[in-house]
Amino acid sequence: MESSLLFNLATLAYLAAMVLYVAFLVLKKENVGKSASVLAYAGLAVQTVALIMRWAESYQMGIGRVPLSNLYESLVFFTWCTVLIYVVVEWKYKTRAFGAFVMPVAFMALAFINVAGISNDITPLVPALKSNWLLYHVLLSFISYATFGVAFAVSIIYLLQDTEERGSAGYLAAALGISTVLIVLGYVLNSAGMKVQFWMGLGILAMVWFTYMVVKGALSRPQVYLFITFCTTLASGMLIFMGIDFLIFKMLHQTSAADDGFRKHMFESTFISNSIPVIAISWAGVLALFAVIWSSGLKIKVMLKQFLPAQEILDDLNYRMIAIGWPLFTAGGLVMGAIWANSAWGTYWGWDPKETWSLITWFVYSIYLHARYVRGWKGTQMAVISSIGFLSVIFTYLGVNLVLSGLHSYGGMN
């Protein structure tokens, strides 16, 4: 049996576990929850065997390398780390409510591999990766990513539980109005050759809003609720429209994404289409998704409330995940990455896009720990910082590989 078949079985197990975890929250049946946990454990066991088999297969082919060198293998390992950490959290805190948030991440990561046609071939390492630092750098980095991912799920749940009211419909109207103006402005400036200036301006606006959220906005529950809606829409919206683009891409090209470079065509059937009506419909779908999430959040809160531990425990769990992840990311992602870069490219730091975004991510989580230890912050402000940190993690991991170019481009789709 090949390892790829076992990875497919793990994907199906995570899909079934995801459905049952959600059903557990809706139906409130303990047997359903136990079945979800059993499937999650089984999927983790199968995936563990698959990882070992893939490692062994590389030696059988005469390549002999750890399975952590490309996007396929890194997604698989990230999923494994995330589920492993979740299983530990479920056992320690005796709650299955987190499964409805973590299992979708595990399933969609593995499903993305199959849907996007990412090559699962075991190939020799490129020269830059032939180093003893590969195992330590990637291993520690992805364990830290997984802890940050669990912290993100806990943070969103904490913020949702901390929200008593979402504010009037005026908050939603203002958010949709501002978004519409920024969307139109972005296309206008892009057509005028000012793409870089627009993204710099948008980045500054985002940083101003995030800073306000951390310092003062966390005291405003409607602001927090808009932030939750923004994070959830960003994550789900990207996945939905990437899926739409890929399906259209497959119909038009009749080939695998990896063969024809899907990342070069990403969003060309939706947000960067040549048709203005298509673009308008795509963004209308995003804004509609934002409105739906904003409208249904408090219903989800009521559904979750009876299954979750106290908010103080959620806050402590968030802190523990980041307290574990930050030193691992520092040692593996930055220090060992710098040493490896020097041996491969002759410099410890080259301001490659991935290096830059790794540093940004490190700063965000450093701010979290500084605020916790020095300022004594807890609760809502810390959950906001944790959420911002994971948005940075996602862009560091996938955004750089799939959108930008640089020394880490070997981690792309092919």
Task: Give the overall form.
Answer: globular
Poorly predicted runs are 409-414
How much of the sequence lies in strands comes to under 5%
Distance between the termini: 24 Å
Please report the number of helical segments.
14
Structural class: mainly alpha
Please count the beta strands (DSSP E, at least 2 residues each).
0
Please compute the radius of gyration using only Cα atoms. 21 Å
Listing every helix as H and every strand as E from the N terminus to the C terminus, the arrangement reads HHHHHHHHHHHHHH
Task: Characterize the biggest β-sheet.
Answer: none
Overall helicity: over 70%
Look at the structure and give the mean pLDDT. Answer: 81
Task: Give an account of the 3D structure.
The chain has 414 residues and is an all-alpha fold. It has a domain of 125 residues. It is 78% helix and 0% strand. The protein contains 14 helices and no strands. Helix 3 packs antiparallel against helix 4, helix 5 packs across helix 8 and helix 5 packs antiparallel against helix 12. The protein is globular and about 65 Å long. The chain starts with a helix and ends in a 12-residue tail after the last helix. The C terminus is likely disordered.
Task: Give the structure's gist in a few sentences.
The protein has 414 residues and is mainly α.
Keywords:
414 residues; mainly alpha; 14 helices
Helix-strand blueprint:
Blueprint (H helix, E strand, L loop, with lengths): L2 H25 L2 H31 L10 H23 L5 H17 L17 H30 L6 H23 L3 H21 L5 H33 L3 H4 L1 H4 L10 H30 L5 H35 L7 H23 L4 H23 L12
Helix pairs in contact: 1-2, 1-4, 2-3, 3-4, 3-5, 5-8, 5-12, 5-14, 6-7, 6-11, 7-14, 8-11, 12-13, 13-14
